What does this fold into?
Amino acid sequence: MEDLYLQVSNLTTSYNNFTVEKVNFSVKSGQVMGLIGGSGSGKSTLIKALVGLKKLDNGKINFYMNNNLANLRENLGYSPQENSLFTYLTLEENIKAFGKLKGLNRKYINERMDLLLKRLKLDYARDKKIVELSGGMAKRADLIISLLHDPKIIILDEPFSGLDFSLIKFIWNIVDELAKEGKIVIVSSHLLPDIQKHCNSLGFVYGGSFYDTKQLIYIMKQKKSSSLEDLFEKLI
Amino acid sequence: MKTFTLTIVSIKEFIRNWRSVILLLVLPLLLIGSFFVSFSTEGLQDLPIGVITNDNVDIKEINSRLSEVLVTKEFVDIDGCLFELRQYKQYACVEVIRNTQFGYDLNLHYDNTKPLVIWGIVNQIKITVDWIKKEKTKEIVAKVLEQAEDAPGYISKIESRINNLQSNFDNYISTLDSSISNINDLKLNQQSYYSNSISNLNAIDQYAGYLISSGQQPYSQYGSDIKSKNDLLRNNLGLQNNEINALNSDLLNNDLSNVRNSLNNNKNVLTEIRSNLNSLNYYISEINKIDPETIADPIQLKFNPTYLPEINQETLSRYRNNISDIDALIKGENLLTFQVIFPKILLLIIMFISLLTSSFICLNYIESSATIRIKTIKRMFIPSFLAIFISSFLIIIIPIICVIILGNYLFLLPFFDKALIVSLLITISISIYSLLGIGLSYLIKKKSLTLIVSIFLLIFLLFFSGFILPIERMGRIPAQIASNFPGNLASDALNKAIFYDQPLNSLNSTILILALILIGILIIVLIIKYFRDKKID
It folds into this structure.
């Protein structure tokens, strides 16, 4: 198991006139970081900055593997809020296409595809087009693509929206498994009890600022909140 | 590899979305089909025009002629016809008014708010009027020439009379010459007689002198009397001789000479008249040679189109059983009309399909949910651009090839014989318009807005490519700009290659300009993509 370390320092990113600034946090192997905040607070903007879709206005993102600086983009698996798949292609075609785009060889793609389809219980749907899949199936398909190149860091932007309870549970299990495998997982979600239950690191985006776990605990104490839900009710 | 993968994905996404297939492949093909089906090669048909009936003028001929090409309706006055014209029920009103005993004015009132159609109708009416004018002139000329045919007979009679007169004159002159000769003989005889008489009188005088010199009476008296009588006689004889001489001289030198001269002059006049008659006869014979058609229509306008389609053996074999069909096929208006507009239509289709398809595919890519994931992959700028371009090109080329096959086999245009030039021009044209569509999509990024702007761009390109208004009718500067627009350059080059068999090297400059335009647009599109890709929504 590799020793992974993601460090974000003084990151500032903006979208139109909205800015999220002074983002500082670090995540290690096996950690699941829950990114929380109200709607439109800038969670997705921050995630886009992390995955390289947005240029940083300021700050640094460093990723270390076994204490060596590594390429974040090559080791990143990203599942955006909306599923990011070719809708008129079958699941298998999607997997193969993204595998080729990521520069993976055919044998590796096939092996990973078989493995992930079984793991995410979509083996039966490999020949189905994405438009024919249900919301839950599409989300799992999207996860397969995100995990295809066996990334070290997995960033999931609101992966549970529109999913039923069993599927939410299923995906949390996957997240837990990935963490157990020693990967870094960052999950943004509004499901605060689940976040509290599954994440061992927190990031709170509020009013254009980022608060890490320690700061969040401090705020909770200040606001005398017993849970994240309680805090949200008081703040938002 | 990335480009290839994305291209395949893009094409699969396009083909599997039946809406896009219908929108961008089936509809354009239907549009092309309907265009060819709806285009009439017979020109203007069944268009109504009003003819004003007038008691003073017989318009039957005009009416019947016009009704062969147009639908005529008779009106009793011009106001009634103009009323219907303003209601778009009539395209024109024809009114014939007598202006002199034989002449007419043909007033043509036409609806100039329908310029494209009305000039066709006006032309039809003009052709009809010209035809009638020609026929009338021919009729009159034929009558004149018919009468001119009798003229040589009359001239011949006059010539005969002149001959008689000349003969009479010759007789008169001969008789006169004979009389002059007789008078001259008489004059000589008279001179001889006078000389003899004087000689005799002189002899008598001598004898009378002898008698006088004898001095014997009565003999000397007799001698004196004889001498005196002799002198008297000599004087009288001299007077008479002088009178006869004077008379002869007058007669010969003045009177008879004048008559002779006068006769000769008159004879010369007759000769001159004969010469003039000969000239007149020549002119009339020349007039009789004239064809009434030549007088009625002296300038024959013969149309010699420089482009006439050639028929190849393969086509010939298809129509082997009916030679007249081949002739109609080659020379008939149908084929030519379609042939000359075909390259323009082809480029019009390329413009429409390329711009719309490429912007559709590009917007599909931009708006695709998969794009956000693709953007997280490194070095995808060029592959994503190339994939959009190549997949657009491959999709566009299908209907275009269909149109080219149609042109080659149905309209007998040598697209395949000129495959290199045609493929070069079509590739460049498709690329230019596709890049415009891609650039526009990256610039706007929204389907609805891009659609509106694409339509405006299409109209702009249509106009400046000479599809709506020929560039020859534009102002100097717009015409200069339009003549360098890709549509116009490609159209001219394609026409030259297809119709006039121009080789590739004669089109080098045009292809070079098109290639430069393509490179220019490519650079602009890449710059737009670069800046727009940086902005994540």
